[in-house]
Amino acid sequence: MAESLPIITVLCPDDDVPHAVPPGLDELEDRAEIRTTTAGELADALPGADALFLWDFFSRAVSDAWHAADSLEWIHVAAAGVDKLMFDELADSDVVVTNAQGIFDRPIAEYVLGAVLARAKDMPGSLRRQQNRTWEHRETQRVGGLTALVIGTGAIGREIAALLRAVDVEVFAAGRTAREQDPDFGTVIASDDLVAHIGTADIIVNAAPLTPQTTGLLDAEVLGAVADGAHLINIGRGETLDEAALVDALEAGPLGFATLDVFAQEPLPEDSPLWDRKDVLISAHMSGDVIGWRDALAEQFLDNARRWLDGEELHNVVDKHKGYVPRPQS
Amino acid sequence: MAESLPIITVLCPDDDVPHAVPPGLDELEDRAEIRTTTAGELADALPGADALFLWDFFSRAVSDAWHAADSLEWIHVAAAGVDKLMFDELADSDVVVTNAQGIFDRPIAEYVLGAVLARAKDMPGSLRRQQNRTWEHRETQRVGGLTALVIGTGAIGREIAALLRAVDVEVFAAGRTAREQDPDFGTVIASDDLVAHIGTADIIVNAAPLTPQTTGLLDAEVLGAVADGAHLINIGRGETLDEAALVDALEAGPLGFATLDVFAQEPLPEDSPLWDRKDVLISAHMSGDVIGWRDALAEQFLDNARRWLDGEELHNVVDKHKGYVPRPQS
């Protein structure tokens, strides 16, 4: 009797979108049985499955269908953050979780640098004046010599630091533990000490994964301690930032500007007070999504799948209790 | 009889603006007689003057008052471009002209990099959607790996090249003469050959001084030869660009976007078709004007004035026939 092929279940988005199914799955055809499914049918597609690929990368469906995962070894998520997937039973299980680390680093760093420069040069103000056919000369800000604090010392935070340094912005970071002489950041302060240190930064970038430790990290106290006129950029997760406290810190100071790509609720509700603010620039959770990103995500999964089928070590293995891929110890 | 002090006439803007008179002139009090004047009275303030400082840096008044310049040795212009000042009699005279080279290089390069990133990440599109409370995910452009052509090989063009290279944009330049292995640009093509080479650039930056050679350089033929969707950035002078041809190249292609800080007529007339275009970002001739720029311009003049009073060599001496400060030959 022929040995049966390993089974890979692929969770796809429900709606009729381009790229509803990841490109290139046929490359695995000879070596695995592929079951594409959607959230509503996930519980039926999990029994017997050895691996699960979350192409629908922000789906929360796995938790509900977990009882049907009777032989699951591996879950790959096509996202840098695994917060939407994670739940206690999964964290405590033997199932290996891998993520899309690496795909978004440079695109997000470019977005952050663009936000820094756009605010410094008042490009939103120029566009609004253009809409009114108003010619008004203003003095703008020099970016070289400013100081940025990057919250989150993962791969995305490190790439942000590199691009900001490339234009002579001074950078330091906040992470789980304070340390000096980090190869990419130099000084890393403890996220617990944000209030004491955040005031030295002209630019604050949240690039932290969403974990219990980072949920609500940027609260009224922290936002009240920023430097006068500081620019907050959030490309991490919306839940790290207290949006009501953000509005207060913009309204009454000290915060000067916020560039927000992520929100506690997405799409951002139509009645959010953030939409109308001239000191806020909003984008639709897209900072890392450059042309070709879905192909890159699919290729990254295929590469890990071949490793898995070959019994090799997987890339981007997430520490399920920490909620991110730990940095290799040097 | 006491030796009389040298006379420095300072041409100030006519209107009641902050910084109407350059700060720090009192530092020269013991060594020179300072005559502050405005355009209407310039002819009365020039007789006997040994030096002229154009604090009103875009003034065209010198040409009209030239007959009264009976002992002028030196003119300093608080601008990077001397096109507004220059006329044949001045070019043919022995009067030395110096300019503000150096003050604007880095700020303008930051503005250009900001424009490159803002377009790539569709920040204007995000702001317009924000105004309509519209959440719409889009794929954006990766900047690393794009190619930029910088027109103008002066100090500003070189700083632009350095900042673009810092984010992994490939750069080449266009100048008066073609050459390879330029220390900052690598390949420099001849501006006469723009049509043949401009199509390889995703980003085109005009940083050329306005001279007879560059007036109308970016005409219909050149703009018709750009790559599909290319981004044109003009921080040089408006007259280098044919604005009617620009509108055509945006309307019918191949040009994709234009960021314009300078215009043939400034302020940009209210009936210009540029204002309403979503593929154009307009700012009010301010790309180099970071906070503190006027103080820096005044200090730069004072430094040159002390050199002049001490009989030392002046900085930033303009080649009056070329219309810019030549690069030292190495």
Automatic annotation (TrEMBL), chains A, B:
Taxonomic placement: Bacteria, Bacillati, Actinomycetota, Actinomycetes, Micrococcales
Protein name per Swiss-Prot or TrEMBL: D-2-hydroxyacid dehydrogenase
Family the UniProt entry places it in: Belongs to the D-isomer specific 2-hydroxyacid dehydrogenase family.
Ranges of residues in domain D-isomer specific 2-hydroxyacid dehydrogenase catalytic: 36-318
Domain D-isomer specific 2-hydroxyacid dehydrogenase NAD-binding, residue spans: 114-287
Keywords per UniProt: NAD, Oxidoreductase
Coiled-coil residue windows: none
TM annotation in the entry: none
Family matches, as Gene3D superfamilies: NAD(P)-binding Rossmann-like Domain
CDD domains: 2-Hacid_dh_1
Domain of life, source organism: Bacteria
